[in-house]
Predict the structure.
Amino acid sequence: MRTLRRTDARLLSGALAETRFRPGARVLDLGTGAAAAARGRVAEVVTIERCRRAVLSARVHGSLRRLPVRAFRGDPAGRGSPGRFDVVLANPPYVPGPDGRRYLDPLCARARDLLARQGTLLMVHSSLCDPEATLEELRRQRLRASVVASRLQPFDPVLSGHRRYLERTGLLEPGQDFEELLVIRADRSGCAA
């Protein structure tokens, strides 16, 4: 799983701060490591992580901050439904290329089922993984979807290691060493159940 970088965390936290949700909300944290970002206004945070260490960390941080965090080990893009949530935070792992949407597509396909009525999804996304396809799929799910935050980010070691492939496939211009990170927001509000 891709580690939540500081830029990711700032973008996601900023978008979350702009999101109005009711006190006592239920939050689903899919691999972001940002469960604590919702502190104080939530009744429950359910976090799903692949990494055992991340699950343990979420439990410890939740306990230390006296947050109602329940952390589970599993596939954040998995098909099982842990219920419906007022806020879903997601930072799906990706490497741009043929399978770069392996986690994005299943998440987009089940986003509506994860959201309570009036619920909001906030997803960190790379400009290199076809954000238009994500927006189209979320809208196809009858969600209002848009980009609400963006920032240019130098490549991390994983993307640097794939630079030649990305240039050959036309996803990068020769010599490009940055990606644009986005936060995509999808709202169920105003949509029929």
About this structure: The chain has one domain: 6-187. Residues 6 and 113 are 29 Å apart (CA to CA).
